[in-house]
Amino acid sequence: MASLEDLTELETRAVADVAAAASVEAVDAISTAALGQSSPIAEARRALRDADPDERRALGRAISQIATAIEAAVEERRTVLAAAERALRLEADRTDMTLPGRLPYRGAAHLVMQVWEEVVDIFTAIGYTVASGPEVETAYYNFDALNTPPTHPARLESDTLYVEYGDDPEAVLLRTQTSPVQARWMESHDPPVYIVSPGRVYRRDAVDATHTPVFHQMEGLAIDDNITFADLKGTLAYFIEKFFGPGGRQRFLPNFFPFTEPSAEMQFSCHVCDGSGCRTCGGTGWIELLGCGMVDPFVLETAGYDPTQVSGFAFGVGIDRLAMIRYEVPELRYFFDADMRVLEQYR
Q1: Per-domain residue ranges for the chain?
Q2: CA-CA to 92 of 20 to 30 Å: which in 26, 53, 99, 236?
Q3: 37-78: per-residue pLDDT in tens?
Q4: How far apart are CA 270 and CA 83, in angstroms?
Q5: Which class is domain 111-346?
Q6: Which of 206, 238, 73, 214 is nearest to 135 (CA)?
């Protein structure tokens, strides 16, 4: 058993070591060495049972006083060091609330949607209304109401995607154009009619640089008193100037569409080379843009209009094609591939 002198010297040394300790871990190590189960103080307490009864009480009191003094020094130093370490952590983690926040990465509308919204804005600015309809359509609205005969090749399964629904295998389909929206609108609205109908359309096309089974189209329809082909040309000239900028020329080549009569294909002078010929226009100086024409009287009659009282024009343009031409995107597939190298260029 250690003598009281030894224990007093242990107390002095332990208190001094605790006062000089630089961390809570160091204080804990000193406390274990001085007060732990293998420490001189623990051995002295165990030896009390063999001490003389007359000396046991005095020795026990002295040992307790020494242990209490060391414990008090340990607790005081631990509190001081813990507070200092906490202050250091708080300083390291401090956030300056006056600094500007970090903005998260912001996305942007897809290029096709940017063009979609811009084209719609051009027409709504001159009084057109945006109309929409179902993408899963009936053959009546997609073909019959638009004067498309049963023998037209567009009705074949090689061109159109049919939906297995009902008894008639060719009654329900994925719309091949947004013209059915016009047929539905005319059924439920009296003239005058001025609408544009943007949306997704579907055709059984193989994927290549200029074709995909899904693409975006916008069709326009104007029905009113005394609408002429001159009104159609003026409307499209306005659209071309707003979308591609001033200075472009346009021309109309005869074509055939069941929905319109007479029908035309509209071309405009290449905005890249100004009509002199380049890679964009294939050297012709002209870019094929859209199909258009005067609404066929049969279509007006089918919708419940009197073709002797009203007339109108219609046109359809590919939104993806507009984006390809203006931004010189070489392949339509880029619009549907999730390639960030392409998409981030049009933020």
Answers
A1: 4-92, 111-346
A2: 26
A3: 777 777 777 767 766 666 677 777 777 777 788 788 888 888
A4: 75
A5: alpha beta
A6: 214
